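Retry 2 of 3 after timeout on previous attempt. Resubmitting structure tokens to design endpoint.
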């Protein structure tokens, strides 16, 4: 049951954690976000990691879900959210700075 729950949570994470930042970005910028391959690959790698690690944790813990495994899973989920959020915000900040510098150099 715990393994099925883990995979269900991974599917939710894939759909929610990739979709929500783009939805928020759309409402903040009022324009569609282009999917950049680097950003998508980063999130995909993180989500793959968070799908494989629970299976390994459950196997090591003899297919049982206890407080230790639950705590590790919550910590991994938090780390994933922080990494993807940081990567997205950092990329947006750099893109804005580069765009501003180009505008100043070209006089547009």
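Retry 2 succeeded. Sequence:
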């Amino acid at each position: 049951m715990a393994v099925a729950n883990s995979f269900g949570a991974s599917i939710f994470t894939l759909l929610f954690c990739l979709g929500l930042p783009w939805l928020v970005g759309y409402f903040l910028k009022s324009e569609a976000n282009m999917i950049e391959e680097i950003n998508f690959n980063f999130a995909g790698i993180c989500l793959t990691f968070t799908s494989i690690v629970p299976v390994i944790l459950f196997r090591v813990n003899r297919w049982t879900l206890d407080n230790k495994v639950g705590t590790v899973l919550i910590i991994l989920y938090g780390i994933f959210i922080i990494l993807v959020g940081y990567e997205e915000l950092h990329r947006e900040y750099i893109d804005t700075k580069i765009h501003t510098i180009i505008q100043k150099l070209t006089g547009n």
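Attempt log closed. DSSP finds three helices and no strands in the chain.
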